[in-house]
Amino acid sequence: MEAPAAAHDPAEPAVSANRVEIVVDSPEQMGELGRRLAELVRAGDLVMLSGELGAGKTTLTRGLGAGLGVRGAVTSPTFVIARVHPSLGEGPPLVHVDAYRLGGGLDEMEDLDLDVSLPASVVVVEWGEGKVEELTDERLQVLIHRAVGDTTDEVRHVTVTGLGERWASADLGVLSA
């Protein structure tokens, strides 16, 4: 008879070969998570962000931009669809896309030339599910879950999953530091 599995403490990150779960308690911690993510990504990486409105997708991207050392304030590109933030140093530029208002798949995204931008940039797509997966099989999927409804709860549960060979051996555990 097998011993029962130990209960998982939600305050402790759960790490596997290509997935990490992190509890974030504040917008500042979400930004810090983005800065740690900047240490892992490189030109050619696609990061897809999912989560409810107000979950912290743009806050995470703002931290990523700070960590990459890019020019310009990283703000939600909802009304312009995409913003390019050139690097202030030798790192890759950040392409920040908000696909919320786009209804179709990759065909509707073609005007953004993400397939051209991807090899030279870190591309972050908010609300990209069902729209940009065809760009590459190797991507990071970041799911941010927050309590919904009438709440002031700042706690977010973030699951980062690395897909494809690029992320198979990546140490995603550094994100929970």
- In terms of DSSP E residues, the strand content is 25-35%
Could you list the spans in which at least 5 consecutive residues all have pLDDT below 50? 1-17
Task: Write the H/E string, N to C.
Answer: EEHEHEEHHEEEH
What do the pLDDT scores average to?
82
The CA-CA distance between the termini, in Å, is 36 Å
Global Rg:
16 Å
Apparent shape? globular
Bin the helical content. Answer: 10-25%
How many helical elements? 5
| Helix-strand category | alpha/beta
Largest sheet: 8 strands, mixed
Number of DSSP-assigned strands: 8
In spatial order, strands of the major sheet run 1-2-8-7-3-6-5-4
Labels describing this entry:
disordered N terminus, 8 strands, 5 helices, 8-stranded mixed β-sheet, alpha/beta
What is shown here, in short?
The protein has 177 residues and is α/β, with parallel strands linked by helices. The chain has five helices and eight strands.
